[in-house]
Amino acid sequence: MSWPGAAAAADGGPLADGGDGPPVVVKLGGARAVDPAGAVGDVAHLVANGRDVVVVHGGSTAVDDLLDRLGIESEYVETPSGVTGRFTDEETMEAFTMAMAGQVNTDLVTAMKNAGVDAVGLSGVDGGLLTGPRKSAVRVVEDGKKKIKRGDHSGTPKEVNDGLLDTLLADGYTPVVSPPMFGMESESEGTPVNTDADRAAAAVAGALGAELVVLTDVSGVYADPDDPDTLIESVATGDEYDALTDAAEGFMTRKVMAATEALESGATAVTVADANVRDPIVAALDGAGTRIERSAVIDGDEAHAGGDAADAEVDG
């Protein structure tokens, strides 16, 4: 679904308050360093002012903590593109679902409810919200050699049930979406699989024609990853986009990749910003962080290629 006022918003800049702007999809990181309290308050503020909001969350810390309590070692792998992500075997997948769709989603919905938001918790499996093929084998680099590692339960959303989200939003509910997604193993059957929450949020934002705010534990993308004073504030041209992708390292590579996918699929803009500042979502909509315009990625009918980083479908 494309919001009819998207072009006006693009011309007039982000709209933090009120119901005249496009939907806002908020990706809330699951790392220990990310405090969700400010984001919860902002969601309540935006919803009270008539803005449609969808929250998509990660939960890597909760997954690791549960695996540790269960005596299961967390396994991370590096893809040929240099992106590190979780390898999710069958045992890990069971814990992943318990932590993500169980603990983290329930805790976040509870916080939203306590803030006055009519929040509804959903996993990507519910109603086929996030669907795509299961990837059971992934390309990894071990000891400098490229290998195929089998037994993975991962995938990237290729379809979004935006009608389900539209129905909930129209009825005044705020969807809070969690991995796993529904991984198709044949034309008629599927199974829950791990999916990267940044890319899940990107898929949702693209499907809704929304503005995507990716909240993390740094202020945005830095030109020099080791120097917070080199924040890239605005990305609106192809050259600026190339500089952005060159600067992104480590976990930020996935976020820039997700931003690209969101913009290519219909999102109006993407901002990567700090979750731990005061009013983090409103601040991001008002210009804090790194704001990436659709014009930076889409040039006529041609999109910038995402490179081989798209192999990284192994982290939630």
TrEMBL record:
Annotated Gene Ontology cellular component terms: cytoplasm
Primary subcellular site in the record, as a coarse category: cytoplasm
Low complexity bias (residue ranges): 1-14
Family matches, as SUPFAM superfamilies: Carbamate kinase-like
Function according to Swiss-Prot or TrEMBL: Involved in both the arginine and lysine biosynthetic pathways. Phosphorylates the LysW-bound precursors glutamate (for arginine biosynthesis), respectively alpha-aminoadipate (for lysine biosynthesis).
Gene from which this protein is expressed: lysZ
Pathway: Amino-acid biosynthesis; L-lysine biosynthesis via AAA pathway; L-lysine from L-alpha-aminoadipate (Thermus route): step 2/5; Amino-acid biosynthesis; L-arginine biosynthesis
UniProtKB keywords: Amino-acid biosynthesis, Arginine biosynthesis, ATP-binding, Cytoplasm, Kinase, Lysine biosynthesis, Nucleotide-binding, Transferase
Annotated stretches, region: Disordered: 1-21
List of residues binding substrate: R86, N194
Record protein name field: Putative [LysW]-aminoadipate/[LysW]-glutamate kinase
Organism per entry: Halobaculum roseum
Marked site (Transition state stabilizer) residue numbers: K27, K255
